[in-house]
Design a protein that fits this description.
Elements lengths: L1 H12 L6 H6 L5 E4 L8 E4 L1 H7 L3 H4 L14 H13 L3 E8 L5 E13 L5 E10 L3 H6 L10 H11 L12 H9 L14 H23 L5 E2 L13 H7 L7 E3 L8 E4 L1 H7 L3 H4 L14 H11 L6 H9 L1
Helix pairs in contact: 13-14
GO molecular function: photoreceptor activity
InterPro entries: PAC (IPR001610), PAS (IPR000014), PAS-assoc_C (IPR000700), PAS-like_dom_sf (IPR035965)
Pfam family, one: PAS_9
Amino acid sequence: MDSQLGLIEQSFNNRYTLWVHEALDELPDSFTITDPSISGHPIVFASRGFLKMSGFSRAEIIGRNGRMFQGPRTNRRTIMEIREAIREERPIEVNLLNYKKDGTPFWMLFKMSLVFGKEDGRATHFVAVQVPIVSRKHMRNSGMSYSEDGGGSRLREIVFGSCRREVCSDSLLDLDRVLALDSDDTGLEIEDSCEASDLEKRKAATAIDNILSVLTHYSQLTGRLVCGKRCSLPGMGFISSSLYISLGRIKQSFVLIDPHLPDMPMVYASDAFLKLTGYDRNEVVGQNCRFLNGVDTDTTVLYQVSIAISPYPKKKSIYMEYVRV
């Protein structure tokens, strides 16, 4: 766990200045930031707004995967939609039922966007904004109208369209009984509408813009610029975030090397490898393995490795140079 916490700290420190945490904490929005390059795709930052909304402390969240907020009523199809968006590295906006620390379920608008490295086009982080959806009951008590046509058709949309079956208090209720319950404040309360309003959608979009603006600014100060859209097409050696997540499940120490790139650089290093060698990921990726050699490295073994890598005589001069180092 200590090694993962070290990687989480590097996740921000290698890309942004130390003041980025303070700047993000000044934002009023509820959001989390995750790093797909770390095993388990953990949360590496949680805003004060999110901590207040969820009831968790920062120490309870950092290093954990976002699935910790799911519960028995969380819609699995929606979760699969989010996972597919992560795999395809694209933004997504869905209505999601999650759970607070005390077990209370609540509806929220979940809007996810990506942060890309400007130099290589790689997805470095995922930003997820969570905007609580104001319930229909709250709107009614506030004197606001929740029905555009005066009742039944809107509720039909809520029960059978917007809301998922698993968040209704009794999915076997027929529509007439549901309508009766809704008109009786003393009856069994059903789950309110899970459709986010236009105002809530605009709030989520504004939050994403503000977060990306902070990250972009503090990446400029380190020279490792990020942007909200893929600024350059990924070249050879590019590893998608979905592959990063899959590789992160492997606990052994290993690296991946791309033989099609000049000098055969490492394009991935596992968490166990970083712990074993003491290097940061940004110090390893892009380097040839020879930089790990030293005065006591057995050149006979290096020669055997070079022969195993290259079955073609025309490439041996490259590997012989590798051996000599």
